[in-house]
Design brief:
The structure is a single chain. The chain is mainly α. Among the domains are: 7-95, Multidrug-efflux Transporter Regulator, Chain: A, Domain 2, CATH 1.10.1660; 138-193, no CATH class. The chain has eleven helices and three strands; from the N terminus they run αβααββαααααααα. The protein has a three-stranded antiparallel beta sheet with strand order 1-3-2. A hairpin with a 5-residue loop joins strand 2 (53-54) and strand 3 (60-62). Helix 7 (137-144) packs across helix 9 and helix 10 packs antiparallel against helix 11 (229-248). The longest helix has 29 residues, at 193-221. The chain is elongated and about 80 Å long. It starts with 12 loop residues before the first helix and ends with a helix.
């Protein structure tokens, strides 16, 4: 069920074109709900389950979301025998982002979506994937659009670390590009040092947790144990992202 739009916008010309009178609503819903009546719609409004827009002359008008909301209420009464208190609670849940339960289930009340996943988060396989690129410093600067001074500063503050061969990987390229983008906002490499420190601390924490796990598994089955570091780090990144989003959220 769609969430009701802001009533402040319902006076616009585009919204007004789709508003329906209470009589038109009754005619639209009567085929599916033969016992619907104007008095019932008014009763649901009085109970706070509907809030149609009023014209300057006081007539009720209903937008498409109002119709869907009313259809949900009538279906819940007819098919699930829900009392108004339960329907009111279900409507509140829907408006807060929960989703309807299975239509044929007894417990078809709205529930928290189980599959909310941030598509931008890396998976464990992404973190453990072997690098494809092995770039020289000059190639890295060209690809990321860095000048030599910024490149050296990123090296100095530990944000760019070459491989033992002296080359830079795909990950280093991502770091360089992100640093270049932040530079446009006046954020210099020296400002980014806390990111390097935080990342190293996360990795250190995970290594500290994983070491005894791997030791116990080796002692139990004597074989090579699966290293869960990448999966744990993926969860750490998800936590960090969620905390940043939470900090930016406004009421």
């Amino acid at each position: 069920m769609p969430v009701r739009p802001n009533k402040a916008s319902s006076g616009s010309q585009s919204t007004a074109a789709v508003l329906m009178t209470i009589g038109a609503v009754l005619a639209a819903l009567a085929p599916d709900f033969p016992d619907i009546s104007i008095s019932k719609i008014r009763f649901l409004e009085a109970e706070g389950l509907l809030t149609p827009t009023r014209t300057d002359s006081g007539y009720r008008t209903f937008c498409p979301d109002d119709i869907e909301r009313l259809r949900y209420i009538l279906t819940a009464q007819r098919d699930r025998f829900w009392p108004l208190k339960v329907i009111r609670d279900a409507l509140d849940k829907l408006e807060r982002g929960l989703e309807p339960g299975p239509g044929d289930a007894v417990s078809a009340r709205p529930q928290v979506p189980a599959d909310i996943v941030d598509p931008g988060l890396p998976k464990a396989s992404d973190l453990s994937r072997r690098p494809k690129l092995h770039l020289t410093g000059e190639e890295l600067c060209d690809a990321a659009g860095l000048d030599q001074a910024t490149f050296e500063a990123l090296r100095t503050y530990g944000l760019l670390r070459p491989e033992s061969s002296g080359h830079y990987t795909d990950t280093a390229l991502s770091v360089a590009r992100a640093a270049g983008a932040l530079a446009a906002y006046g954020i210099e490499p020296r400002h980014l040092r806390p990111f390097r420190t935080a990342a190293d601390r996360e990795i250190g924490l995970v290594q500290q947790v994983v070491a005894p796990i791997l030791s116990r598994k080796r002692g139990t089955d004597g074989g090579a144990a699966r290293d869960p570091s990448a999966q744990i780090l993926a969860e750490c990144i998800a936590l960090h992202t969620a905390l940043v989003k939470s900090g930016l959220a406004t009421d």
